[in-house]
Amino acid sequence: MAAACSTFDEFGVPYSLRILSAHRVPHELATVATAAKDDNYQVIIAAAGMAAHLPGVIAAHTTLPVIGVPLQSKVLDGQDALYSIVQMPPGVPVACVGINAAKNAALLALQILAASDSDLSDALIRYKQTMAETVLNKDKKVQAIGYRAYLQERG
Questions:
Q1: Cβ atoms within 10 A of the Cβ of 119, count?
Q2: Residues 31 and 44 in one domain
Q3: What's the CA angle centered on 111, arms 67 and 92, to 5 degrees?
Q4: CB of 67 within 8 A of CB of 56?
Q5: Is 93 found in the same domain as 30?
Q6: 12 with 42: CB under 8 angstroms?
Q7: Three-state secondary structure readout of 64-127
Q8: Each residue's pLDDT tens digit, 22-81
Q9: Residue 100: pLDDT over 90
Q10: Which candidate, 111, 105, 110, places its Cα nearest to that of 47?
Q11: Domain check: are 108 and 149 in the same one?
Q12: Based on the domain organization, do 32 and 104 belong to the same domain?
């Protein structure tokens, strides 16, 4: 989740980080999830591995958007977590990003927040423009020096 935290820091968006478990502290999790809206949360990101019930349990206790981040594990490389998060029953939606994709979870959360925050929306537009410029500069360079020199230069 460090990538999500640093992304929020980059955009100047405050966040809260908790370590909870759907299986080990279910009552505490339910309390936190139920109170999230009253505590002024607007979106929740939940990372979980293996059975990955955390995002779904949170979604069952709140009407806030919940974004699940499946975590890679030694068994099944995170596919078990991915399927657990993606296959939610009707009425309990959880958005899901790729395995270990905490940065994308943060960016999705920022896009949700930007729907009602024009300054954040503008910052996301600039972020995407910078990404596009980076790709176009790489393309320009590979076209100029060829792929072998480009790869050698990159190390």
A1: 10
A2: yes
A3: 30
A4: no
A5: yes
A6: no
A7: CCEEEEEECCCCHHHHHHHHHHHCCCCCCCCEECCCCCHHHHHHHHHHHHHCCCHHHHHHHHHH
A8: 999 999 999 999 999 999 999 999 999 999 999 999 999 999 999 999 999 998 999 999
A9: yes
A10: 105
A11: no
A12: yes
Say if CB 120 and CB 110 are below 8 A apart. Answer: yes
Range of the domain at 133: 118-155
- Which single residue is written with the structure tokens 């790489």? 138
Residues 76 and 130 both lie in one domain? no
Tokens of 8: 């929020």
pLDDT value of position 75:
86
Question: Within this chain, do residues 60 and 132 fall inside the same structural domain, yes or no?
Answer: no
130 and 83 within one domain: no
**Rounded distance between C-alpha atoms, residue 104 and residue 153, angstroms:** 28
Q: Are strands 66-71 and 44-49 parallel, antiparallel or unpaired?
A: parallel
Dist. CA 65–CA 116, nearest whole Å: 14
Note if the pTM is more than 0.70.
yes
- Structural domain tally of the chain? 2
36 and 89 belong to one structural domain: yes
